[in-house]
Every structure is written in C-alpha cells, then in structure tokens.
Amino acid sequence: MALFDLPLAELRAYLPHRAEPEDFEAFWHATLSAAAEHDLATEFTPYDALLPRVHVHDVRFSGSGGQRVAGWFLTPAEVAGPLPCVVQFIGYGGGRGRPHEWLLWPAAGYAVFVMDSRGQGDGDTVDLPGSDSPQHGGVLTRGVLDPEQYYYRRLFTDAVRAVDAAASHPEVDGSRIIVAGASQGGGIAQAVAGLHAQVRGALIDLPFLTHFRRATEITDAHPYQELADFCATHRDRVEQVFHTLSYFDGVHFAARASAPALYSVALMDDVCPPSTVFAAYNHYAGPKELQIWPYNGHEGGATFQPPIHLRWLRDLLAA
C-alpha cells in the first residue's frame, strides 16, 4: 500500500483532543480493585518443551473475575536470577502459542512471561464461564454497547494482573518488568503502561486499540472494519459505541504512562494507521522514542525490530 495518511511532518505534530469520559479514572480504579479481591494464585508448572538450555513453565493465574488465565514462563537455564522480565502480549486472534516461539528473550538473558489472550488463539483461556472454544476475530465488538461488559475490560485487567503474576516468581526482579507487544499486543502493553505503576519500560509496536474513531474513518482493513460494520448495522448506536470505546482508547492510557517507552510505526500500515499511533505517541507522558518504518505495512520492522528492542532495553536497564 502507498502512503495514505497524513504527511510525516503533520504526523509528528498530530495531537488530537482526548475525548475522555469524566469517570475514566474511577472506572479503572473500580475495575482493578474488583480484580484484586481475587487471589492471584499463580501456578508455575514445569513443562518439558525439549529445550534443555531454557527452563519452561506452564502458567495459570487469576485474571478478571478470578478466571484462570494461561501463560508461559521461560528463563535461561544458565543465567542466575533475579532477572528482568518481559511480559509479552499477543496480536489479534492469537494466543500464547508454543514455548519455542518465545526464545528471543531468554536467549538475551531475560525472563519472559507470555500471557494468553482470553477467547482467542488455541482456546487455552476461555473468555467467560461456559464459553469453551476460541474464536478468530469478532471480539472487537463483543459487549461494545456497555463499558462494564466490553471484552477489553477483561483482557486489559488480565494484562495488569499478568505483571503481578510475573513479579511473583522468585527468579524475576520486580523492579525491572517490561511490557511488550505488537498490534493488539502493543495496544495491551500501552494500556498496562498507563495502569500499572510497577512497569519499568514498554515496547509498543504498531499499537491497535488506539484513536478508535479516526481508525474507523480512514481504513477499511480489519480488525477496525469490524467496528465500522457494527456501526453500519446499528446506525442508532454509533455514539454509544464510541462512548464505550473511550474507556479503552490507547491515547488515554498513553497520557497516564510514566515508564520509558519505545514505539514503532509503519507509514504504510492500513491495519493500524500511522496517525492513530502518532496520536498515542504524542500524548505519551513518559520518556519515549519512536522507530519509523517509512515503506512498511503492518509487518512493521519485522526481523529488523528485535535488535532495536534489545539495544534499547540494554541501555534502559543499565541506567
């Protein structure tokens, strides 16, 4: 795809008004307080992934509503802790996958805690009691008429709890926890950076779930097209939809974050349009850097991005 969004000079200055609900803070305080009433009850069960130089654990912890959330926890076998830990979140439609997919971080000397996405991926974590099968797509509009019932209220709460679950392991240095992800995972990492004071840094690549209204107006790519299709069908509920989404917009979380962040954006990305990423980046309240990929779409930096992550984290954690 060719360039389709604002010119780069305008993107750098793009600072849209934040249409934030008055009770945003109260909503999230109540949400996280309700979750905290449930014991994390984190279980780390050794798992034979046939990777002798990596210790692998299957994880279960209590997320939103006390529901059990799956994950993986990997540490390098030959590096003594306590270790910095990357809490990794997953893209839209995906789940925690298999342990061998997450070897980058232990190879670099970090622990990694990979959180499953409820109701997505392989179905290791159900969304709500009684829903025993995963689905691909569609969760973007699940419960979108009510902030209390919206899917991402549960998923973001799981993600905040995942930081606590990772910090509970004796091999993890709780003062050096990094949240990371791309696309949906980047949107989740961005939200957690704004909600959890313990986060030391954030790797936010091509974040989804950000500047919703503009996204639905300038791209017809999925997943944002799910919202546009919903609004096209429910013509009389459009403002209700965007009122709900205002509690989950990454721009509002970015404005509350204080941890250093490394963002990336691709200027030909029609899935997470550049202006939506710049809207959050320009509002981000903590120290920040931005990696721009001018000729790429939603693949972003692909294999070029991890070395940038590793160098940035090395410098951050050495400071």
Automatic annotation (TrEMBL):
Gene3D superfamilies (UniProt xref): alpha/beta hydrolase (3.40.50.1820)
Binding site for substrate: Y92
Top-rank taxon: Bacteria
GO MF term set: carboxylic ester hydrolase activity
GO BP terms: polysaccharide metabolic process
Domain Acetyl xylan esterase as annotated: residue spans: 1-315
Active-site residues, Swiss-Prot/TrEMBL: S183, D269, H298
The protein, known as: Cephalosporin-C deacetylase
